[in-house]
Specification:
Layout lengths: L1 H17 L7 H10 L1 H4 L7 E9 L2 E10 L2 E2 L4 E6 L5 E7 L15 H12 L3 E13 L6 E10 L2 E10 L5 E6 L2 E2 L21 E3 L10 E9 L3 H5 L20 H4 L2 E12 L2 E3 L5 E3 L16 E2 L6 H22 L16 E4 L9 E4 L2 E4 L10 H16 L10 H15 L13 E2 L12 E2 L14 H19 L1 H12 L8 H14 L4 H13 L10 E3 L4 E4 L6 E2 L8 E3 L7 E4 L5 E2 L2 E9 L4 E9 L4 H6 L3 E3 L6 E5 L7 E5 L5 E6 L4 E5 L6 E7 L5 E6 L1
Parallel strand pairs: 6-11, 12-16, 15-17, 17-19, 23-29
Antiparallel strand pairs: 1-2, 2-3, 2-4, 4-5, 6-7, 7-8, 8-9, 10-18, 12-13, 13-14, 18-19, 20-21, 22-25, 24-27, 26-28, 28-29, 30-31, 31-34, 32-33, 32-35, 35-36
Helix pairs in contact: 7-8, 8-9, 9-10, 10-11, 10-13, 11-12, 12-13
GO molecular function, one term: zinc ion binding
Pfam families: FTP, Peptidase_M36, Por_Secre_tail
Keywords: Hydrolase, Metal-binding, Metalloprotease, Protease, Signal, Zinc
Amino acid sequence: MKKNLLFAGLLSLFFSFSNAQTSDKEGQARAWIKENIKELNLNSDSNLSLRFVRKSLSGETLRFQQMINGVPVFDTELVIHFSPNGDISYSDLNFDKNVAQISTVPQITKEDAIAISDKKIDVAGMVTFQENKLFVYNKLGSTKLVYRIVTSFEERPGSWEVILDANSGEVLSVKDIAIHCGFNGEETSNHGVKFEKSNSQKFFMPVEEKSALAFESGSAMVFLADPLSSAHATYGDTGFTDGNGQGDTDTAQLNGQRVNVTLPQVENTAGTYKLKSSYVEIKNLENPNKGLFTQATSNFAFTRSQDGFEAANVFYHTDNSLRYINQTLGIPCVQNVDNSHAGVLWFDPSGENGADNSHYSNGVLVFGEGCVDDGEDGDVIWHELGHGLHDWLTGGSLSQVNGLSEGSGDYWAQSHSRILNHWTTSDAAYHYMFNWDGHNTCWGGRTTNYGAVYPGGLVNQVHTDGQIWSTVLMKIWDVIGREKTDKAFLEGLSMTNSSTNQQNAAIAVRQAAIDMNFPCADVLTMTQKFTQAGYTMPAVTTRINCPGNQTVVAGAGNTYSMASFISQTNVISANCSATATQNPAVGTSLAPGTYTVTMTATGGTSCNFQLTVQPALSVDEFVKKNLKLYPNPASTEITVSGDFISGQDIEIYNLLGQKLIQKNLITNEEKIDISSLSSGVYTAKFKGSNTTLKFIKN
């Protein structure tokens, strides 16, 4: 309990930092802008406002927005990324060079604008999200001052954007901007929809009172990742259909594919358990309203016919994915587009008015129920979460150019499901996206083994075109592995903006790998796979990354013979042929002191690290320094650690003085097998010194 409470506090603290609007690199970034102002085709940097800062494994990313008289120009951004070495390694520009200078004083109020918007889209029932911001807008042929009102409400699926002239009150545009999963591979759209009048009143989702988070571990029955994959079955096999329009039928075959999993956190409020953690929370956001499935136990064990099954399934997969990103990969990524969530992703397992679709918008996920319930297929869940990751990493600058976000969602889903090893490479389903929800009578599904190449293979349909992107990422995944590809993908995506195409995203992903000091072989793999997929990859500039600062101890004669640090130095070059040399050279005799070691790559690029040579110690002092032996008592093995002399031996004696074990200490931490010893007291002696330690063998 205490650990969970502490973690939640740390997550909240980190979340506040991750949304900081200041950076000590802002001055350096603005200086770079001035130096490159002609290449960027800008007049000056005075109309740029730093709106978002992100620090992570690949460095620090700053996002500047174009401004006119203090009002942001809609959908504009200059991204500048600093590597961990402090140099600018990537930039991406999305500016409107044709925007006109206009008055930025609105003639109608924000309140009136919301009233007009509500009437236009017939807002009724519970409003789950509403935002109104003033922009300079140049998307409809002329530059205007507008209010952009975005509203989500339970009686109508989606996230509705109304662009309204801030001077006249005229509605200029109405559209659903939620990112939908799609059906039969086609883009879905509610644009031009006719709104039916409702008699219900508008009211807002209640704001929860702030309280201490009370989490406990729980459990749930879920699909990993879907019942067809885990059973190695085909849709239509006996027991493996959705129910033929009769609802989520329980069959022995489908229920048999459920797996009991641990939920690291579920909320416990006075004995009432809810699917809520530090990362994810269940909500009713759209109709139908089927409840939140709270109960008096932390075990959320539902069968497939129960609505709670989809709720527990979505909760487990989203929470698990976000824990993997933040805790395993060490990449900060939480919901950050709606501050009312306090960094938590909201999800509704039964929305979309029951339609066969799902969507992401404004920090929430909503899953439909038509045909196979979307919340039953891990691929659908991870795909929709992928849109959220894209949105949060970029501070709201998700791009659908060339279907980039659709392909990113498909990659994220496939990267997760592939590790479950349900299919072999010879199975067609090995590359399937949405194995349970698609590739059946519901719809055709997608693949990560798409044959088209970029850009000639683009067909201007985001779900189809996104398969080029997901396919090449999985080809990289097959060579360098899941964790490294996931890291490069997420960090690279964080450098993109709302106009980034697949071409520039590929460059950003490879640059993230370089900035995270991936081995040159991995960078070369990326270059080759991206090139084969049709992307034009700029030549890799030779780069050398030194090991961290080192401390050694002088040996005989109180001097240190310089060792080789070349194997610890990573040289990245176009074809990985560059090598490194070091100064001082290997074998140089060094007296105690601190030295700067310079590693130089072929071509002259260099890096430095500090080498500290400590004075020689006597044998006894050297062995005793930081010496540890544990566990004590021990049953099968002991570990000895300390600053040992190179080639030092450890000898183990019984109480009769008989030597039973002798081992050479190669590293400063060695494990010694004592399973053959009888129970009793033993002495560990470090040969060549007077240092001994006693331990007990159980």
